[in-house]
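Troubleshooting entry. The earlier prediction with inosinic acid gave an output that would not parse, so I re-checked the input for stray whitespace and re-submitted. Clean input:
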Amino acid sequence: MNENIHSMSRDKIEVLFSENIIKARIEMLAKEISESSRKTEGDLLVISLLKGAFIFTADMIRALHRHKVKLQLDFMTLASYGKAKESTGSVVIHSDLKEPVRDRKILLLDDILESGRTLAFASQLLKERGARSVSICVLMEKPGKLVHDVRPEHVGFIVPDKFVVGYGLDYANYYRELPYIAAVMDGKKR
Ligand code: IMP
Ligand code: MG
């Protein structure tokens, strides 16, 4: 019996990254971010992409605090239409930022980078609105899936080509509450 495999309602899930592993990795990312942020003037404006990045953001900003980074926080909800494989699918803003971004040093946080469509859209939008700099931190990246020109400065984990849930990420809006990151088994993918 593999203790990492659980049955959650209809789906079988396999734990990929435990709570402790995630915690340790975020601490390292926060250290990296604090070091690069210190090289330029001004406080960080952290922009978190909802809903997927909300738990990652909550943990990351507290880790940044431990690394003495001064920051402000804002959220944006983006949705993308069309299949992830199509680079032509469009992204729409469901809920926009409240803070002005002109001249700000921005750290964009997202849960997972796949085609790069969401992050390409977000970082382009911020630059068009006059952001001074935009750096990107993603908790996870699925290699070999990128079709847009997005290069995150900070990546938490490289994940296999599986559908992952937990720690803010969902499958049909379920599983966000799981404290760990797991793969949905039985070939279930969206
Ligand atoms: P991209 O725009 O193709 O890079 O897709 C990124 C977005 O798709 C993420 O912000 C997630 O919301 C979603 N996504 C991609 N892969 C997964 C996954 O394995 N589990 C949950 N959400 C995912
Ligand atoms: Mg998302």
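This one parsed fine. The two ends are 28 Å apart (CA to CA).
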